[in-house]
Amino acid sequence: MSRFKQIKIKYIFQQFISHISIIVVAFLILSLLFAYYVSNLVYESKADELIAYGEAISEDIDRNPIASEQIINQYSNVLRSRNISFSLFDQKGYLYAVGKKGPAIELKPSEWEKITQGKTIIVQSDYKRFNQDGVTFVVLPFMDRGAFFGGILLTSPISGLSSMIREVNQFLIYTILIALAVSFLLSWLLSKIHVNRIKRLREATSLVSAGDYHVHVPSSNFDEIGELANDFNHMVKKLNYSMEEIENLESRRRQFMADVSHEMRTPLTTISGVIEGLRNDMIPEEDKERGINLVSQEAKRLIRLVNENLDYEKIRSNQIQLHREEIQLLELLEIIQEQLSVQTEEKNVKIIVEADENVMVYADYDRLVQILINITKNSIQFTTDGTIWLRGKMEQDLTIIEVEDTGIGIDPEEVQNIWRRFYKAEISRTSNPYGEFGLGLSIVKQLIMLHNGEIDVLSEKGKGSKFIIRMTNQAVG
């Protein structure tokens, strides 16, 4: 069984062949049509000339029958100079007057029938009759009160017409050859341009596949290749952004793992040491309760770390079902103030609640508490000997909640980073028990998005921060 190799034809040759083929076919069709049109035009012009002379001879003879022989001789001299012959024939087809040695009348039965009916016969070219190499001839009938009584036959050799047509065709061939040469060059140039553009895209694709995401190719909206280049550049930009995000995420993941390992090592070491001390009776009786309390605190710290990670993943994977209801914001803010009183006393921070009793918010109660606890703990973390305001107000169908502090603030370039998972504005603050794992604000952002709300941060280094939450205050739909 024979095996055939797949034939590969380069794109430049495909383009070139298709362009030239279209041009050749178009020129051939146009050339044939033009040659046909010119030939018809030349023959029709000669036939019209013969008809005009025939009608003139007929009218002159009708006006002056007595001088018909003189008229025939005059026309014979005139037409001889134009290489035209004419003959007169009677109703039976016999010649009775000939200017220049005229041929015998040779008409086909169908042509003779038309003549007897008073119709003019026009034959553009004939190579068989009148003992000539080829003629154009017309036959005009003489009619008297509807009765046929003879006619006039005018002939002209077509050798001159054929020569004229050949010259026209020759010029046409030269024009076609010149046009094909120009088309050849333009098609080759255009194909090279397209192929070079495609090569650039191919080379850029190879670089991207090799891991270079900073490639850029010239683009335009001129044609599909330019649009493809635009799409390619957009794709590379997205890939480059994705790779940067992956690298940043990997860097934060490594930092997070280091932080988590450090955070877990300390409580685990403490728990292990206390348990070993209790097992071997190495801890005095009066210190045992203190040791047990220490183990309990460190265990809760580990549970908090695990819960934060699980909570974040549940929110990201839409596994949390919100149970929304109308909530009085003043009461909720006072609960937050009370729950965090121990932490505020440790940092000498005062929480002030500012909200009217009629301010309502439509949200999931537990998740809104979680949001405000996380944000307020974040403010407590970076505020010492200062004040935190919890405010609430309504604007049309929105409830605006503000958490403002007088803490150390955030650098403007870090504001957009605080929502990232594992991110911590102060890496050195790993001893703080609230949001120390860099997950608190990430959870806040995801929960607010689940509520179809928005959160913004206004902050300046050394001048505190303000978190602004916008959520609906009524059921939608």
Oligomer: single chain
Alpha-beta content class: alpha+beta
CATH class of the largest domain: Alpha Beta
Overall residue-averaged pLDDT value: 77
Work out the count of structural domains.
3
Spatial separation of the terminal alpha carbons? 72 Å
The outline comes out as rod-shaped
**Spatial sequence of strands, sheet with the most strands:** 2-1-5-4-3
Task: Describe this entry's structure for a reader.
This protein has 477 residues and is an alpha+beta fold. Strand 11 and strand 12 form a beta hairpin. Helix 1 packs antiparallel against helix 2 (68-80), helix 1 packs antiparallel against helix 4 (159-209) and helix 6 (285-316) packs across helix 10. It has three domains: 11-163, PAS domain (Beta-Lactamase, 2-Layer Sandwich), CATH 3.30.450.20; 224-298; 320-472, 2-Layer Sandwich (Heat Shock Protein 90). It contains ten helices and twelve strands. Residues 426-438 have low confidence and may be disordered. 54% of the residues lie in helices and 18% in strands. The strands form three sheets. A five-stranded antiparallel β-sheet has the order 2-1-5-4-3, sandwiched between helices. The protein has helices at 11-63, 68-80, 109-116, 159-209, 224-279, 285-316, 329-339, 341-347, 365-381, 440-450; strands at 85-90, 95-99, 121-126, 135-144, 147-157, 324-328, 350-355, 360-364, 387-395, 398-405, 454-459, 465-472.
